[in-house]
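B., you asked whether I could sanity-check this one before it goes into the benchmark set. Here's the sequence:
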Amino acid sequence: MKIRKQNIFNTTWAIIKFIISWILVFVYAFILLFVPTGKGSVKFLRIFMRCFAFMTGVKFKVTGKLSTKRPLLCVCNHISVFEFASMPIAFGASFFGKKEISQWPLVGWICKKFGVIFIDRRPSHALEALDTIKNELAHTDHPLFIFPEGTTTNGAYVKQFKSSLFDVVEKTGVTVQPVVIHYRLRDGTKISEEDMANHFAYFCNSKMDQGPLCCRERSAFMQVFHIMVLGGFLVEVTVLPVPDLSGMDRKQMAETLHDIVSKEYMKNK
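And here's what the prediction gave me:
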């Protein structure tokens, strides 16, 4: 299977779907006015993301199961904005996200209602971020995902994990489980590094240390539109066993978890 080329027909259809998607966003936003933030809103997130995935043509395949222990913090590699649909659909999960997203018009408010926890990742706000994570984990019974790379990539590798956010694991003993995602064409065919960078990944060229650069960087919204033009893709989600992190400090945890996620990703990408 090859990547679908852009033409007037699939571009027009993508424009229609993009408009419908935004109409649905406003409809869901209205409904959310009456849905209290918490367990109910997180369940509603799953429904919303299923509609989003249908409109974009994104499919999912999950291998493995998450731990039943709670609180559960899942660490995952990060390629594009579509991880924010993948994890709610696959696991009924929510996220820790970058504080900047909370300031996006409408989208930020919807994310808050959906249980997304925003943290400031600047080093000067590390203690504040730590307190936020600790407080949320204490009363959350659904899995929470975090992307320790701190940014998306071109899909050619997994960036080193930032150790600061693992301080809460060191101090609370929360269960941590690694999860790995791979992108494929809809029929399961592997995607080349060049095609991944140019079509499927969402990243900033200046932040890449390895692999090909994107010939045309897009905003998050334009990336969604581009995937609609392409007709979607397949997200393969692999849940790995819970590792033994006892006795490790946050830097050792970050290195260990990165090694686990990176090896699995590079082996099967």
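One thing to flag: The first helix runs from residue 8 to 32. Otherwise nothing jumped out at me.
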